[in-house]
Amino acid sequence: EGKLQGKGRQVTYVDAMDQRSAEQSRLAADLRIALDTEQLYLHYQPIVTMPGGELFGVEALVRWTHPARGPIGPAVFIPAAERTGLIVPLGAWILEEACRQAVRWIEELGDAAPHTVTVNVSARQLREAGFAGEVAAVLERTGLPPEVLTVEVTETAVFDGGTALTELRAIAALGVKIALDDFGTGHSSLGLLRTCPADVLKVDKSFVDDVTEGGQQAVVVAALIGICEGMGLRAVAEGVETAEQAAELQRLGYRYAQGFHYGRPMPAEAIAAYRPAPARSRIAA
Ligand code: C2E
Ligand code: MG
Ligand code: MG
Ligand code: MG
């Protein structure tokens, strides 16, 4: 009997695994179609300077409106795309679309255009030999000056494979900026700073949250700004949601921030109209 029960459990476990991978492959199959039928688009979230909240740059974030299931978040479909390898063509599309938009902003807005456009690049993309060559080709095709593009990677992506660091160095050599995302949450964030070319540290939201909540991690936020100043890196505080957080970050010396307090990810047209909050209240007054 015990044997039967055990067998039953095993079947249930296998079923659950099957269901999950079936869901993953369904998602990936739908995503493949989405890529060809304009269900995917990019939103852009402001990266601002403090204290004024002026637009400094943007981060491109991919969006998917599934014809039957409605909006599906990137936290759900990017992992599926990574597992199936679909992230390679998907990521190529995202990179080119973001670069084209960056050129459009420069043409339309001149000096008021975002100074930098940040694009997320996943581990799987970075592992593709020749990825840096693809970045160079996109810059060439779109005419975007390399220094306007920032490639955003996570620590795990850089450590993921042998060639990731090589590709990243080749990308940096083009003049493209490198941002390390979710900084401080990985296993050897500080070690990474020795080997990896980096221009920007994005201090993870979990640390930012602790700044006003008296959490233990608040000291990390204070320490990281010192490291960035010493190493000539730009520190960007991620996930800033309140005026209190913004004020405390400024007090600690932060000059760049990104978060719902300043603006949610929005369509490209809304970026052209983006104005810092203080300017809006001056107009209202
Ligand atoms: P990420 O690169 O760390 O991007 C920041 C995420 O935090 C975005 O979620 C953004 O909307 C969210 N966020 C920004 N400010 C706030 C805030 O104040 N509060 C809160 N609660 N959240 C905030 P999103 O767009 O859902 O993206 C999630 C993740 O999916 C990204 O994390 C990134 O790892 C991945 N992703 C998104 N777009 C792309 C893409 O185009 N390519 C790749 N490879 N990955 C992407
Ligand atoms: Mg990221
Ligand atoms: Mg990001
Ligand atoms: Mg992040």
From TrEMBL:
Domain annotation EAL: ranges: 24-279
Superkingdom in the source lineage: Bacteria
Protein name according to UniProt: EAL domain-containing protein
Taxonomic source organism: Paractinoplanes ovalisporus
From-to range in the entire protein, with total length: 465 to 749 of 749
